[in-house]
């Protein structure tokens, strides 16, 4: 009696032979080329970041103990520092998570020598971030210039954009540059100074940006996020001009907002969903310069409980961005990105499916001793070998870039907690590559036909590329933010030890001050 495997063998061998056809061979060779192209891009990005690491260490060896702050130690002289322009840092907040305190501390303890103000913008005092920020700032008293701004609810754009624009309205009248930061960005002591220096050197810069280095927490969802961001990272590691923009770190001229240059304010306010995609479209339309300095890479710790469903919702948000646009040219660009990413994602996954078929067929031939008059199913093993080699080269290149960026982050924050490469699980990263590329087209299709998305507890609906409806009904499935695991609706049920300990410490300090006043 034939076993199940023996019954399936003819279909397996037929599939293996089909995978040796011309079109199938093309798809498999294309998959190898995609792997090698990614490897080349990451190698070039690693070269740019490594060059900065070598420059810093050479400067340190030459006696500049503050190489992590500036290239030229003479720039730390009072005569130079006193001439630095005023910068306003605007941080739109939503919820509170396990890494927020450390991230906020890294932002407000910047060693920038010029006038500097920080505006923490929340939608209401009921936001979990409000009380946490209040307690954090009590530790610094009058050492830094900070403001907590209550923006209210957005009605015409995403809540993040609304918070950013309210922050712009409240910034100091003498502010020359405005820096938008996400609350999950961990800055280096010299980051604000480095960004400002580049803006001063080249007034033609429209926007300066950077990119995060994801620190996976060990969950499969966190590795999927890391893998999703890595291909984009090569576009930010140019050492200068780029076409990419990350909303987590954007420095711009404050006057561009005061004058509504190119409609930056109206473009964001009137139906804007994504801050970075909207501003990138404006920059492209008016041929303005976007740059990313080599030191603008920031550690981005992911939530320890980042589940796969939360990764899926994050992926949905990323593909949903392609459904928003501000003009016809922006729409065409988004459709082109949609098509290219769709094709390349499944073009990346398909060869691995074919490789599994080839391998399974070859194993059945080996163990059962089958003989064939025509082409043997084992012929596909050559293609399997090519794909395996290409994959190893790709993973090695990704490993190299991650290693170099970790070195750079550690050198830029010598007093901060060191980042380590040892916690990365490369088998899970490989599996995440397959899962992420398989799911991206599915997510893109769902976003295209769904035209709505839940972002941090708020559901946005699009019409003609702009937000047309905002629904704030609390959905039980979205009590936490996707990446940082921030509790969105209040403290009840929050289990983050960092928050509890900090909250307790804040209450004790308040009690002590009250007693001293009495």
UniProtKB/TrEMBL annotation:
One example GO MF annotation: ceramide glucosyltransferase activity
GO biological process: one example: glucosylceramide biosynthetic process
Subcellular location: Membrane
GO cellular component: membrane
Coiled coil: none
Membrane topology (UniProt): Multi-pass membrane protein
EC number of the protein: 2.4.1.80
Pathway, per record: Sphingolipid metabolism; Lipid metabolism; sphingolipid metabolism
Swiss-Prot/TrEMBL keywords: Glycosyltransferase, Membrane, Transferase, Transmembrane, Transmembrane helix
Keyword Transport: no
TM regions (residue ranges): 23-48, 379-401
Gene3D superfamilies in the cross-refs: Spore Coat Polysaccharide Biosynthesis Protein SpsA, Chain A
Presence of keyword Membrane: yes
Record-linked InterPro entries: Ceramide_glucosylTrfase (IPR025993), Nucleotide-diphossugar_trans (IPR029044)
Family, similarity comment: Belongs to the glycosyltransferase 2 family.
Protein name: ceramide glucosyltransferase
Native source species: Papaver atlanticum
């Amino acid at each position: 009696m034939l076993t199940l495997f023996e019954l399936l063998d003819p279909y397996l061998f037929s599939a293996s032979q089909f995978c040796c056809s011309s079109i199938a061979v093309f798809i498999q060779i294309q998959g190898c080329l995609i792997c090698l192209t990614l490897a080349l891009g990451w190698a070039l990005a690693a070269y740019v970041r490594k060059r900065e690491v070598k420059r810093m260490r050479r400067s340190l060896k030459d006696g500049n103990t503050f190489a992590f702050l500036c290239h030229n130690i003479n720039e730390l002289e009072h005569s130079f520092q006193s001439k630095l322009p005023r910068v306003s840092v605007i941080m739109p907040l939503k919820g509170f998570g396990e890494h927020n305190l450390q991230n906020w501390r890294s932002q407000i303890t910047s060693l920038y020598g010029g006038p500097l103000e920080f505006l923490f913008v929340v939608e209401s005092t009921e936001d979990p971030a409000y009380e946490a920020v209040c307690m954090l700032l009590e530790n610094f008293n009058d050492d830094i210039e900070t403001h907590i701004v209550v923006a209210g609810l957005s009605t015409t754009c995403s809540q993040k954009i609304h918070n950013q624009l309210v922050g712009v309205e409240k910034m100091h009248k003498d502010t020359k540059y405005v820096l938008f930061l996400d609350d999950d960005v961990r800055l280096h002591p010299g980051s604000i100074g480095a960004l400002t220096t580049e803006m001063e050197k080249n007034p033609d810069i429209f926007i300066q940006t950077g990119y995060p280095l994801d620190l996976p927490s060990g969950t499969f969802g966190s590795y999927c996020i890391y893998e999703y961001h890595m291909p984009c990272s090569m576009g930010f590691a140019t050492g200068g001009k780029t076409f990419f923009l990350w909303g987590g770190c954007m420095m711009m001229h404050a006057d561009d907002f005061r004058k509504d240059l190119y409609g930056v304010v109206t473009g964001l306010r009137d139906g804007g969903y994504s801050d970075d995609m909207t501003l990138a479209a404006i920059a492209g339309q008016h041929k303005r310069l976007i740059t990313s300095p080599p030191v603008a890479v920031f550690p981005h710790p992911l939530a320890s409980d980042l589940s796969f469903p939360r990764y899926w919702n994050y992926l949905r948000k990323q593909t949903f961005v392609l459904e928003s646009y501000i003009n016809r040219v922006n729409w065409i660009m988004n459709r082109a990105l949609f098509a290219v990413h769709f094709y390349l994602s499944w073009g990346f996954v398909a060869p691995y499916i074919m490789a599994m078929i080839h391998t399974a067929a070859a194993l059945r031939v080996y163990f059962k001793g089958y003989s064939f008059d025509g082409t043997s199913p084992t012929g596909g093993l050559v293609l399997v070998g090519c794909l395996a080699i290409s994959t190893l080269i790709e993973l090695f290149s990704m490993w190299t870039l991650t290693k170099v960026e970790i070195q750079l982050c550690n050198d830029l924050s010598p007093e901060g907690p060191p980042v380590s490469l040892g916690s990365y699980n490369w088998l899970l990263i490989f599996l995440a590559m397959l899962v992420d590329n398989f799911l991206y087209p599915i997510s893109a299709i769902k976003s295209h036909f769904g035209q709505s998305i839940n972002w941090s507890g708020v559901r946005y609906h699009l019409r003609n590329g702009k937000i047309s409806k905002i629904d704030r009904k609390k959905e039980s499935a979205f009590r936490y933010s996707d990446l940082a695991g921030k509790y969105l609706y209040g403290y009840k049920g929050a289990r983050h030890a960092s928050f509890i300990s900090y909250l307790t410490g804040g209450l004790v300090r308040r009690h002590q001050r009250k007693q001293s006043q009495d």
